[in-house]
Amino acid sequence: MRVLMLGAPGSGKGTHGARVAARHGVPHVSTGELLREQIAAGSELGRIAQPYMERGDLVPDHLILSMVVDRLMNPVPAAGYVLDGFPRTLPQAKAAYEVALAAGLTLDAVVCLEIGHDELIRRLSRRGRVDDTTETIVHRIDVYEAQTLPLLDYYDGRGILHRIDALGAVDEVTARVLNALDRVAAERA
Ligand code: AP5
User: Fold this and answer.
1) 9 cis-preceded (ω within 30 degrees of 0)
2) Closest protein CA for atom 40 of ligand 1
3) What domains are there in the chain, each with its CATH number?
4) Residue with CA closest to ligand 1 atom 6
5) Cis, bond preceding 87 (omega within 30 deg of 0)
6) Alpha-carbon distances of 35 from 99, 162, 172, 185, rounded to whole Å
7) pLDDT band for position 80 (50/70/90)?
């Protein structure tokens, strides 16, 4: 199973992405987590990415692309994965599609977690990561709407978009996601 988790900051991409990956026995690859690991390791990528992340801006596409390609294609292409937080721009999506197509590993499904702003702000304010100040959360939501929302039409056009209501108890939302993916698997079988 090759799945993308899309959604605004705080919509639950990480929470449900990890559960989907465990259920399907594939790696859960979060670009936010990969970047935070780079910052913790003091790498050059981490040093470049850190100010973008602290502001709630997107890290430049070329840096993200090489990080993701390296994670998913080396030493051998990953046959299955749950990608969380990537792609976030149309150029990222189009470049990823070309790489996946060449490897014969295009996506099975894109899950978009849908939820209102008030709940996003409530969840993230409670969590308290370094980029979870109210001002930065609001900016991250604006960035999501300007740069990532256009991806929904792109994936809808490819017939692989599944919109999921992300409001409710964690277990309920996970069940909605898993049910949608079970339907994809059944159609494919
Ligand atoms: P990233 O780490 O991806 O952050 P994000 O998109 O802002 O998403 P979050 O991790 O805040 O939320 P989430 O949707 O995963 O929700 P979660 O499950 O944690 O990216 C951080 C930064 O890295 C970006 O701003 C950018 O700078 C950079 N970056 C990353 N990818 C990039 C890319 N591709 N291109 C360029 N830049 C990139 O849940 C949130 C909270 O809510 C948790 O506390 C959770 O326990 C709780 N929660 C979840 N579900 C529920 C529920 N149903 N009910 C109640 N609480 C819930």
Assistant:
1) no
2) 10
3) 2-183 (3.40.50.300)
4) 9
5) yes
6) 21, 27, 29, 31
7) very high
Residues with CB under 6 A from ligand 1: 7, 9-15, 31-32, 35, 52-53, 56-59, 64, 85-88, 92, 123-124, 127, 140, 168, 170, 173
Task: List, in sequence order, every residue forming a beta bridge with 23; answer none if it has no partner.
Answer: none
At 137-179, the pLDDT tens digits run 999 999 999 999 999 999 999 999 999 999 999 999 999 999 9
Average pLDDT over residues 72-91: 93
Task: Tell me the C-alpha distance between 18 and 15, whole Å.
Answer: 6
Ligand 1 atom nearest the C-alpha of 17 is 18
Contacts 24+ apart (CB under 8 A), 148-156: 148/6, 148/88, 148/89, 150/90, 151/6, 151/87, 151/88, 151/89, 151/90, 151/93, 152/6, 152/112, 154/90, 154/93, 155/4, 155/6, 155/93, 155/107, 155/110
For residue 90, what are the contacts with CB-CB under 8 A and spacing of at least 6?
A: 150, 151, 154
Amino acid at 165: D
| CA 144 – CA 157 distance, rounded (Å) | 20
Instruction: Report how far residue 115's alpha carbon sits from residue 99's, in angstroms, rounded to the nearest whole number.
Output: 31
The residue whose CA is least distant from atom 47 of ligand 1 is 123
pTM > 0.90: yes
